[in-house]
Every structure is written in structure tokens, then in C-alpha cells.
Amino acid sequence: MSNVAVLTDSTASIPEDMLAELNIHTVAYYIHRGQEVLRDLVSIQRQEFLNWLTTARVLPTTASPGPGDYLEAYRRLVRKGSREIISIHMTSKGSGAFQAASVAQSMLKDEQPDISIEVVDTRNVSLCQGWLTIEAARAALVGLKLDEIAQRVRQLIPSTHMLQTADTLKYLYMGGRIGMAKRLVGSLLNIKPLIGMEDGVIVPLGQARSHGQIHQMMLDRVEEAVGKGKVKLAYVHAGALQEVEKIRQLLESRLDVVESFIAELSPALAVHTGPGTAGLCFLTE
Which of 5, 54, 68, 69 is the most buried (most CB within 10 A)? Predict the structure, then answer.
């Protein structure tokens, strides 16, 4: 058992078997669907939500956990024997999770000054947040101390990158999360957009007329970032398994991949990207 507990949010979209294997703890985001208040991957699961989302006329809203949610999660870990916690969250420019966790950190410090918590803003989302959490958990399991784990995670932040395409940008647009990529909206029906994230904000990276062209653009961008080095790949999708399998086949025929897996976005992220989303989050070695 590690001396350092590792906590992240449901939006990291880490597969359940990896959460269990690496002893990663999560706090669920909220999804407001009409009068319903759902907890991400607790009271609503991926396929059920996607089935409903394709018929939705009004987009649900999402909310990050509040300070009380994180405080309770920290207290729960302390009750289980943890004296040190690393808490890893999506970009603070797109969510209030980092701020809420930081408030909870201060609240617990007032209650129990001997407990140490490091709160990390990954400046990214999805399995980029997930990769940093996975690396933190692996470091904890081999016995690294809290400050060493936090330093490693922060050093890896510039090496994590997201590339994503979708059948439509309307979900990002409707949800107000499209940022600089809003200039792509005008030709939604005619293009396949490629988006990424820079300094914690969604940005447009290009567009093409076909999935094949977009996949090639993804490969080109990963090759540019990796060079002759090694890479870890997490292929992510929302109801687009066949497409990410095609992306995987293309990339792994050209890159030196040391680890890869396929994961599905959590409902709290699928709200904003919509069904048909496919892409990857990669970590350069």
C-alpha cells in the first residue's frame, strides 16, 4: 500500500480496471439534466447517457464538485490511513475543480495540520489529466514521496497533449466550451475539425473533408511532438470505438509506442463533445 493517496476527478476518464489496479480515487462531477442532478459515472453511465444525448433537445449542464465534495474525499482518505494526498484536476480555465480542491485543501489543513495535500492544475482534460494521474499513482506505488510525485507530475504537464475530432462541434458550441475553436462552427456539416488544448484552453488545429485526412493530421502532430522518441497513447471516444481503432492502427504502425489503451469519455465530458467524438491523449517519453 502506498503512503501517498492519489485522487482525481471522474472527468479523467480512466478505465475502471486501471483505477482499481493503481488505487486511484475519484470525485464525481455533476450533470444537471432538467430537474435531475446526476453524478458522473455514479448515477449515470456512459452508454446510457450517450443513448439519451443523441435525442436531447436541450443540452444538460455540468458542474465541478464543490469544496465540500473534495473535503469529504480527503477526510475519507485520511480515515483510511493516508497522511499525504496528491489531488489532480482538469484545467482551471475550463472548470472550477482546481479552485474547489484548493479550498478543501485549506479547510482540511485547519482541521488536521499534519496532513499534506498537493493540488495540481493539469491545464488539460480527459486522459491527459488521466495520464498524469496514472503516472502519479505508479510513482506512489513504488514508494516516492509526495513532493517527488508532485514534482514529477508538474514536469510531465508540458508533455501531455490532446487531439480530438468529432462528427459535429455543436455540443462544444452549445455548451460554451469551444473557446477559440468557435471559428470552425460555420462549416460544421462540411468539415471534420481537429481541436486540441494549449495553455488550458481549447484551440482549433485544423480541418479536413474526411476522417482519414483527420487521422493523418493526428499522426503528423504526434510525430512532430515525439520525434524519434517513445510515446504513451490513450485513445478516447464517445460512441466511436471503430474510429479510434482505425486511429490506433495508423499511429501504432508508425510510432514507437510503449503503452496504449482505449477509453471512453465520462458523461460529464461527453456532454460537451457529443457522440461520435474520437481522438487521443498522448504523453511523450
Answer: 5
Give tens-digit pLDDT for 91-115. Answer: 999 999 999 999 999 999 999 999 9
Task: Please give the Cα distance from 19 to 26 (Å, whole number).
Answer: 9
Burial 29-50 (b: 16+ CB within 10 A, else e): bbbebeeeebbbbeebebeebb
Distances (CA, A) of 52 to 37, 48, 204: 15, 6, 28
> Measured between alpha carbons, how far is 251 from 11 in angstroms, rounded to an integer?
25
Instruction: Count CB-CB contacts under 10 A for residue 189.
Output: 7
Q: In the Cβ-directed half-sphere of 158, how many Cα atoms lie within 13 Å?
A: 2
Q: Please state the length of the chain.
A: 285
Kindly report the CATH class assigned to 4-157.
alpha beta
Task: Record the cell numbers describing residue 30, joined without a space.
Answer: 455533476
Q: CA-to-CA distance for 160 and 17, rounded, in angstroms?
A: 22
Cell of 163: 487531439
pLDDT digits (tens, 9 = 90+) for 101-152: 999 999 999 999 999 999 999 999 999 999 999 999 999 999 999 999 999 9
Q: What SS3 class is residue 167?
A: coil
Angle of helix 67-79 relative to helix 97-111, nearest 10 degrees, comes to 50
Domain 159-284 matching CATH 3.30.1180.10: the answer reads yes
CA trace torsion 180, 220, 227, 263 (10° rounding): 70
